[in-house]
Amino acid sequence: MRMVVKYAKQDRVKYISHLDLMRTLHRALRRAEIPVAFSQGYNPQPRVAFAPPLPVGMTSQGEYMDVMLASDMGPEDFCLRMNSVLPQGIAMLKAVVIDESLPSLMSMVERALYSISLKDPGQGFEDALKDFLAQTDITIIKSGKRGERLVNIRPMIYHLEIVGREEGRVIMEAMLSAGSKESLNPEQMIRSLLEFVGIEGDPCCFADIHRLDMFLYRGNAWVTPLELGRG
């Protein structure tokens, strides 16, 4: 049995790394006595995989793990048992059983939706945002295993709009690339946006970023991983 599980990473744990988060979840699977299947071979490993990781410093209600089970169990029971042993700040939200033949979540997920709470840059920001998005080339420097390279992130921004204001902050929603093929860290986009409107500084000082969900393209539509569930 293969199960996809949606979970939240809340404010209390937003500064732990993805590696530490994986260790915590693996430990919780053991403590909750979840019947996780193991790989074959000399050094068997639990068959647990994850969707594209969340950058450190962000919160989320749309994280996903992919678990292969050695025996059947109900999705509700899975979440209940996991939540009974998980530390505060990590919570299983929903689980569904999916077809075992489907590709990995990492290879299927292509987009992520974020809510961004930004210190209000002031009058004229709406027009500046329109001008920012009207550009065909928004170039940043990305660092990787092969060193630094120039990347045009404009094609990775599918949607960005202001959805409200509250207590001196602008609330925006952004749909960005997120996957194994290409991925855009929201902080990189925010840094470019702030530079465009003439504000310098670390995006962490100006914005709170919350991932709402992830999406993959299947059956001529963009769906969440939970929508892969049988029935």
Automatic annotation (TrEMBL):
Domain DUF2344: start-end pairs: 2-186
Identification of the protein by name: Radical SAM-linked protein
Natural source organism: Caldicoprobacter faecalis
InterPro entries linked to this entry: DUF2344
Pfam family, one: DUF2344
